Amino acid sequence: MPYTVITIAGTNGKGSTVALLESILTQAGYKVGTYTSPHLQQYNERIRIKQVPVADQLICDAFSRINNSRNNVSLTYFEFGTLAAIEVFFRQQCDIVILEVGLGGRLDAVNAIEPDIAFVSTVDFDHQDWLGNDLDSIALEKAGIYRNNKPAIYGDEPLISSIAEKVAVEELEFYQFGKDYNYRLREQQWDWLPADSSCFEPYYNLPLPALGGQIQLKNSANVLFILQLIRSQWPVTQAEIKRGLFTATLAGRFQILKTEPLVIADVAHNVQATRVLRKTLQALSVPGKWHIIVGMLKDKDIASVLLELKTVAQSWSIIELDTPRAMPAEAIRTIVQEQLGQDSETYCFVDFKQAYQHYNEYNNKLQTSGGYQNNLLVFGSFFTVSEALRFFGE
């Protein structure tokens, strides 16, 4: 490839890792191409150059060239999109390309591109129908992006046994968060600390990342290690790192849509991500209780996900999602009552707009009576958050 390729896989944390890495490298002046999925509102969000979605015409031209060249070879939706992104980045002469795996890793279309660095953020239960029903199987699928002669990174701890075995058998150049590098939080700043300071340079007095939640410190630490591995070709100063951390944005990840009362949107849809979301909400210590608008897909562990929010949820609004993959709202309502009790305050609505109108009416009554208004969490799926973003955009 004419550019450096960094491939990012993992159950959770992929999007944040990509956004932070993209932001810092762009601040350093490099032409960074980024391919992510899914999109929230427009397809162009998937293909960005220097943090800006590329124009419709560039994507359409790429699709046309691929279609004319494929010689009746059947391509999936995601394969078409991946090839289009690679073609756009080539024609636009990018310096560095960041590819986010869509699902799994080993069999994902992104894995057809040889990475210069392969990174797996976390491994947890999700997409079991495709990846397997145990963590070892899921981990092996995600670690399928690793290459024998290129750096391979695992951004979590402890190390899952199937990855450890793969590393040993294939003699990979392997690095891990918590073993080869870590971070130290100091009030409103943090330090990045390598285990071997003779090979890697520590960074001190870094600003907290703009992305919400303490989990972003771990994501940022992973990003800084990736930057250390490419610094001979693509050096980045500490000032550029600080600017990148401070300006990174990512739609739908603990995104504040409104204040007073607080409205937060998050695409968390599995247990690991929802547990992090709950801890982040609890750390806010804001007045008022939490009302939750949720919609989810059938293939998720809905009961376990909703149970994670039992300690923070005051009431629930469940919405229908406009996709055949959606779990019906009444079915989710039944799960809420089974997990949280039959007397749980739950409502069902045909879409986000109706659910939000109900939330507003309820809050107006609270305000009239002199009480704190309820805060609002919108979560459960990219589809759910997409509806919220579209509503607030309008």
Biggest sheet, in brief? 8 strands, mixed
Gap between N and C termini, in Å? 41 Å
Q: What is the helix content? A: 25-40%
**Unreliable runs:** none
Morphology call = globular
CA-based gyration radius: 22 Å
CATH topology of the largest domain: UDP-N-acetylmuramoyl-L-alanine:D-glutamate ligase
Total helices: the number is 13
Q: Which series of helices and strands comes N to C?
A: EHEEEHHEEHHEHEEEEHHEEHEHEHEHEH
Oligomer: single chain
- Which class do the helix and strand fractions yield? alpha/beta
Q: Strands of the biggest beta sheet: in what spatial order? A: 4-3-2-5-1-6-7-8
CATH superfamily (homologous) name of the largest domain: Mur-like, catalytic domain
| Beta-strand content | 15-25%
Count of separate structural domains: 2
CATH first level of the largest domain: Alpha Beta
pLDDT average, as an integer? 94
What is the number of beta strands?
A: 17
CATH level-two architecture of the largest domain: 3-Layer(aba) Sandwich
Structure description:
- By secondary structure, this protein is of the alpha/beta class.
- 38% of the residues lie in helices and 20% in strands.
- The protein folds into 2 domains: 4-247, UDP-N-acetylmuramoyl-L-alanine:D-glutamate ligase (3-Layer(aba) Sandwich); 255-393, Mur ligase, C-terminal domain (Protein-Tyrosine Phosphatase, Chain A, Alpha-Beta Complex), CATH 3.90.190.20.
- The longest helix has 17 residues, at 352-368.
